[in-house]
Amino acid sequence: MRQTLLAAADNGWLRERAMRQPFVRRAVSRFMPGEALDDALAAARRLHERHVGTILTHLGENVSSREEIEAVQAHYVDALERIAAAGIDSEVSIKLTQLGLDQSERLAFDHTAQLATRARERGARLWIDMEGSAYTERTLALYRELRPAHPNLGVALQAYLRRTPDDLDALLALGSAVRLVKGAYREPATIAFPDKHDVDERFFELARRMLAPEARARGNWVTLGTHDARLIARLEAVVAAEGVPRDGFEFAMLFGIRRGEPERLIAAGYRARVLISYGSHWFPWYMRRLAERPANLWFVMRSMLG
Ligand code: FDA
């Protein structure tokens, strides 16, 4: 089921048809406060009032027209202004293929550098999402080049990739901000662990490495992006056993999933953020959310029945 849903994420025929269906749009709204930046900002403001920080991301990937790439860049410049004006604790996360990586590495580099500068002027972190494995090497090369001049720049690493322990060591040695996630794309077994149990264990071991005193002493920032209750409990135990300050790293979750858990963590002294996605290009992203939990298909069916 996971593989089928992930294959559907890349299917243009299905995308065209599904996006026009009101019942699909209703089901998507569970994970997305709305398509407009205003919707995302309103949701971020509500979370801010409950002391929950946010990360905003404008949906879209593999953008091919130069005009559209420039429009995405302008959108993010505006979003950073609006976040600062709203006075909320909100960061931004971008995808490099939204900002020109398929066209030229230089284009994506320049756009990211500009946004990182703008974000830093407003005291915010800028995150780079990690996309499919065809982009891992280029994403990390770009990150390593930009990070020395942009200490507010962070990057996601995917625990399911076989290469990630080496990538993590290199980033920790550099001094980085790393958002560890399990990984959401369709990858062959030669590249990513196919078994969920292996991925969960990898996540735990990598997170331990990130929370170790040597890594934190180097100024690395740790964000643990997961909703996995068992994993979070194991990590809380590590934090307690090793004396890691609870506010010295953060947990992050996706909007609409495990509502109330960020508030629970914050009440216990941890930091937590919610990543809010918005925009009209939601189809592949939504398919990945369904693939993570095929039981979500019931919500689609329920909204089909009205
Ligand atoms: P897991 O899949 O084991 O789920 C654990 C539990 O969480 C489930 O039992 C269920 O209760 C709940 N849950 C998880 N997913 C759900 C869903 N879709 N619907 C309903 N409940 C669900 N990936 C990537 O490749 N690149 C990236 O840059 C990012 N960025 C990112 C940022 C943040 C803040 C988060 C939280 C996640 C990402 N991801 C990502 C997605 C990530 O790779 C992964 O696919 C999801 O987080 C699901 O994995 P879990 O760790 O939640 O565990």
What's a quick, concise take on this entry?
With about 300 residues, this protein is of the alpha/beta class. It has helices at about 1-10, 10-20, 20-30, 35-50, 65-85, 105-120, 135-145, 165-175, 195-210, 215, 230-240, 260-265, 285-290, 295-305; strands spanning about 55-60, 90-95, 125-130, 155-160, 175-180, 220-225, 250-255, 270-280.
Describe the secondary structure blueprint for this structure:
Elements: H1 2-9, H2 12-18, H3 22-28, H4 37-49, E1 53-58, H5 66-86, E2 90-94, H6 105-121, E3 126-128, H7 136-146, E4 153-158, H8 164-174, E5 177-181, H9 196-211, H10 213-217, E6 221-225, H11 229-242, E7 250-254, H12 261-267, E8 271-278, H13 283-292, H14 297-304
Parallel strand pairs: 1-2, 1-8, 2-3, 3-4, 4-5, 5-6, 6-7, 7-8
Helix pairs in contact: 1-13, 3-14, 5-6, 9-11
Residues 129-130, 156, 158, 181-185, 225-228, 252-254, 257-258, 275, 289, 292-293, 296 line the site of dihydroflavine-adenine dinucleotide.
